[in-house]
Amino acid sequence: MRRPKYFTPKEVSLHNTQGDIWVSYLGKVYNLTTLVKEYKGDVLLKPIVECAGKDISHWFDLKKKDILTHVDPLTGCIKYYTPRGRFVHVPPPCPRTDWANDFGRPWWKDNRYEVGLLSAKTRWIRIINTLTSQEQRLEQVCSEETLDEILQRYVCYNSHAASYTWKHNGVNLDMSMTLSENGIPEEDEFYCGSADCDLFSPSICLYFNDDLTEL
Length: 215
Hints:
Elements: E1 6-7, H1 9-13, E2 16-17, E3 20-25, E4 28-31, H2 33-38, H3 46-50, E5 60-61, E6 66-67, E7 69-71, E8 78-80, E9 114-118, E10 122-129, E11 135-142, H4 147-154, E12 164-168, E13 171-172, E14 203-208
Parallel strand pairs: 1-9, 10-14
Antiparallel strand pairs: 2-3, 3-4, 4-9, 5-6, 7-8, 10-11, 12-13, 12-14
C-alpha cells in the first residue's frame, strides 16, 4: 500500500488562490481547485476561497467528521452551522426548488480531493555536504517523514543526493526511518528564529560514495 504524503502547514498555505486552492482539516490536506473551477462564479464559494491555504478544522465536529450543526432558532430544526456564510453543498435553511442536490457526496466527504496528510509537528534540520562543504538548512520538515522522503526535499539542492551516505554524529542513518527513530534530537526551541539558530539545529552529514546516482 502506498505511503501517504505529508505536508507542512507552510506548504498548504502556498496554495491560496482561486486557481490553486488547498485547505486542511481533521489532519488531512485537500486540493479544492477543481471544485472551485466547477462552481466558478457561485457566491457560495466565498467562505471557501477566503480560507484558501488555511486549516478549517474548526468548521467540523471531530466525532462525526462532518460540518458542525446547531438548532436553527427560526425553524427549530438541526442545521449546518456556517458562521462565515453558507458554502457549496450546504443546503439552504428552508426548502427550495432551485437548489440542485444531485452532486453526490459533499466535497468535505469526497476523498477525490485528498492529496495527503497534514504534519502534526514540523522540524528544522541542517544538511552538510562534506565533499563540497555546502550547507543547506531545511525549514519545517515533517516529523513523520522518513530520511528517504527528506532526501526528496533536498534533491533540488543536490541532484546526486542518493550517491551519499547520510550520517549523524558519525553513525549511518536508516533512510527508511524518521529523524526521531534515528535518534536525531529536535532543535532547541529557545533559539528557533534567532541568529544563533544554526548553532543549535541538528545536522546530517553527507559522505560521497563515488556513485553519480541522479534523481
